[in-house]
Structure formats: C-alpha cells, structure tokens
Amino acid sequence: MDTILEYAPLLAGGTATTVLLFLCAAVFATLMGALGAAGKLAAGRAWRWLVMGYTTLVRGVPELLLILLIYFGGQRGINQIGDAFGFDYIELSKFAAGVFALGFIYGAYLTETFRGAYMTVPTGQRDAAKALGFTTAQTLRLITLPQLVRFALPGYFNVLQVMIKATAVVSIIGLADLVGLAGDVGKSVRQPFSFYMLVFFIYLGFTILLTEVFSRVEKRYARGLDR
Amino acid sequence: MKLSLIFDNIDLFIEGLFLTVELTVLSLLIGFCIALPFGIIRAREVPYWSRIVNLYVYAIRGTPLLVQLYVIYYGLSQFVWVRESFAWPILREAYWCALIAFSLNSGAYATEIIRGAIQSVPRGQIEAAKALGLSAFQIDRLVLIPSALRKALPQYGNEVVFMLHGSALASVITLTDLLGAGRELNSKYYITYEGFITAAVFYMILTGIIVLIFRALELRYLSYLTLR
Questions:
Q1: Cα gap A192→A202, rounded to integer Å
Q2: How far is CA A16 from the centre of its chain?
Q3: DSSP letters of B42-56?
C-alpha cells in the first residue's frame, strides 16, 4: 500500500494520459463514423465499396494488430513521404498513433451505428421538409440530426464502453499510459500484482462512471419518445 | 512487399495459426462450461449465487482483457505461496496463463449472453411443456436450454469473433500465435509491415469462416423464427 501511495502521482499522470487518449480517440472515431456513414448512405458505388472495405477490414482483424500496423507501418510511411520532400527523420508519437488507431478501429463500428440511426428517421419527414422548402442542409441540421442523435446514442455509448477498455492495448506500443506505467513500476518494485490490480479497479471505475453518465444522457435524449 | 520472405516462412504462420485456433477453441469451450451454469443462475436469480456470479461478470466485462492477462501472468508471481504451490509449473507458463485469462473472459461474456437468451424464451413454451406433464428437469433439458441456446446463436457468433481477436494478446506474453508469427517475421528481417499484413490476411479468413459457420447454424436452428 505504501509503495502504491509513493507512486500515486506517477500513476495519476498515467491515468490522465489514458483518459486523454480515450477522449481524443472518441472525437476521431466519431468523425470517422460520420464520414463512413455518409459514404455508405450517399454518393456513388465507389464510396460504398470503400467504406465496406474499411468496416470489413476492421471487423476482421484484431485491434492489437491494427495498432501495431498503424504505429510501425505509419512510422515508415511518414518517413518515406518525408524523405521524398527532404525532411529529416520524423518520429510518430505513440500517443498520436494510439489516437489514430483507436479512432480508425472504432470509427468502423460507429459507421454502422450512425447508418442504422439515420435509417430509423422516416423518409417521409425528409420529403415533408422538402415540400416545405427546406434546403438539404437545413433538413439535415434541423430535422434529421436531432433525431439521429437520439437513435444513435445507445449504440454510440456501447462502442465507447468497448473503446475505453481498448485504450489498455495502446500500452503495448510503449505509450506511458496507466497500464504501461503501472507495469513498469510493478515490475521494478516486485509487486506486479498490486499494481495491475490497481489498474484493474481503475478501469472498473471508468466503466461504472461511463455507465452512469451515459444512462443519464440517454434518459435526457429519450424524453418525448413514447416508450 | 517481399512475398518470397512470407512464403519462405509460411511454416511459422501455420504454427501460429494452429496456436491461435487452439487457444480460441479451448477458451470458448471452457468459457461455455462456466457460462452455462452461471447463465442459468443469473436468469433464475438464484439467491446469493446470482450476486456472486454478477460480480464476476461485471468485473470481467468492465475491465480490459489485457489487464486480466497481466494480472494472471505477471501478477501472480508476486506471492511466494503461489511460487511454492503445486500449481506454479502451470502458472509460470505463458500458454496456461493465456488460456486461463481467455477462458475466464469468455465465460463472463457468454454468461451474459446465455442469461439474456434464457430470459427471452417465451413463457408460453414453458407453460406448454408443463401442460404436457414434463418435470421441471425435463423442461430445462428438453425445452428451455435448447431453445435458449438457439436464440443465443447470433450473439455467441460475435463472441467467437471477439475471442479470436482477443487471443492475439497472447503474442504480448511471448507466445507465437498468428500475430506473434507476424511480429517474429518482422523482427527477424527488419521489415515493418509484411508480417502484420500476412497475419491480418489469416485473421480475416478465420473471421470469414466463423461468420459463415454461424450463418449456416442460424439458418439451420433459427429459421423457424423468421417470418415467411
């Protein structure tokens, strides 16, 4: 216990890194999901195939593999491009790679969530908006999106609940997050069990916190839905 | 892309493939053996037991598989009594630790799936079985559980894919599974992504096979539920 207290500031820093990673990845995943859903719903066949390739790839491959591929492959890719333009060696930060990888992976799941939510909004409403003279942008902003948010929330939160747990995997590329730091400290003071159990309970805390927050938000947005 | 390197080392990937499949299948089997009684306990809300099972399910589902694996593989060695116990030759091995962690993990997710499936069996089916004079045990064995397991198929299919992908974490604790093979190839030849991409192709094929198997199973066992 004393040892844990001694390293508490360090671990708090690691926890902050994990939380920041989660938040940044959530933003990026939401963008990817929105783009993916738009590509799948609208546009031509090429876009639909591209998005289908993207979601199939992500759902067919372990997340650790994609994280390693994006970190190491991305590193080389960036430097190949950098070389061509005469830059020196560019270091891809582990944090950025983690954000990009998690966002890329969970964006694929959100693509399905958003697409499903969009299709739940009845077409008649869009037709009615058109008849009333709304522009496409207005219809999206004033009619489709507010309802889409409501329908998408449960699925969206589910994906985020899975993603918070996936942040642990980013420690494998050497990010000094909660799992990485706790592992280093635990091994050096020969108390790996104590430190990993602490991580275990912190993650459990994240899950409980998110469940609580999400259920409140969901209730708020479900107001006015007759159920 | 150096294709010849991959073909020269295809044995490495085949071995990795076998380990991945082995770990996945065994974890799912053990997990299922845990989940069936636990799922029934949860669905029936057996006093006292149900709360303990719920604690297990909640703790496992609320934390990363990687952390669970680390607690078992790195964590347990902290205790002298573990190191001196008869179980140490097992707990020392990465393979057994991975199998234990994956089984416990799959058990928790499957418990939840089975609980939901049991609760979704229509009351009428049970009442009909009662009216036909079946005993409580017969109802469970002949009606409730078969019916629930059928309904659990789609979700259990997802769990199988999830476990396949989760098993890639075995490569982190020194095991040479599919992903481990890819990493080994990369470090052996100082290459960046050929090993990963080869492993990815194998994983995609495995995922595809699982999806096809479950589609066939659903067609066989669930088609009575679809509207014609």
A1: 15
A2: 17
A3: HHHT-TTHHHHHHHH
Cα distance between residue B118 and residue B109, in whole Å: 15
Q: Which of A60, A187, A203 sits opposite B63 (nearest CB)?
A: A203
CB hemisphere CA count around B82 (13 angstroms): 12
Please name which of B31, B29, B57, B62 lies closest in space to residue B43, comparing C-alpha atoms: B57
Beta carbons of A196 and B67 less than 8 Å apart? yes
- Give the tens place of pLDDT for each residue, A86-104: 777 777 789 999 999 999 9
Residue B38: strand, helix, or coil: helix
CA distances from A171 to A77, A187, B169 (A): 22, 15, 12
Nearest Cα residue to A116 out of A139, A74, A147, A92: A147
B24 touches chain A (CB under 8 A): no
Among B67, B75, B200, the residue with its CB nearest the CB of A65 is B200
ipTM: 0.90
* Matching residue, tokens 């009909």: B128
Which residues are within 8 A (CB) of A126 and not within 5 positions of it... i.e. 6 or more apart? A139, A143, A144
Within 43-62 of B, beta carbons closer than 8 Å to A belong to 58-59, 61-62
Establish how many alpha carbons lie within 13 A of residue A197's alpha carbon, considering only the half-sphere containing its beta carbon. 10
Q: Answer yes or no: do A172 and B172 touch at CB < 8 A.
A: yes
Residue ranges of the alpha helices (H) in A42-93? 45-60, 63-68, 74-84
Tell me which chain B residues have a C-beta less than 8 angstroms from the C-beta of A171.
Answer: 66
Give the count of beta carbons closer than 10 Å to the beta carbon of residue B219.
10
What is the CB neighbour count within 10 angstroms for residue A168?
A: 24
Structural domains in chain B, CATH included, are 3-226 (1.10.3720.10)
Quickly tell me which residue has 């996936």 as its tokens.
A166
Length of chain A: 227
Q: Binning pLDDT at 50, 70 and 90, where does residue B171 land?
A: very high
How far is B37 from B52, CA to CA, in rounded Å? 13
Q: Determine which of B54, B57, B78 to mutate to test the interface with A (most A C-beta atoms within 10 Å).
A: B78
Give the separation between CA A35 and CA A201, rounded to whole angstroms: 35
> What CA–CA distance (Å, rounded) separates B80 from B114?
38
| pLDDT band at residue A219 using 50, 70 and 90 as cut-offs | confident
B163, two tokens: 């476990």
Q: What is the mean pLDDT of residues B28-48?
A: 94
* Residues B67/A207, Cβ–Cβ less than 8 Å: no
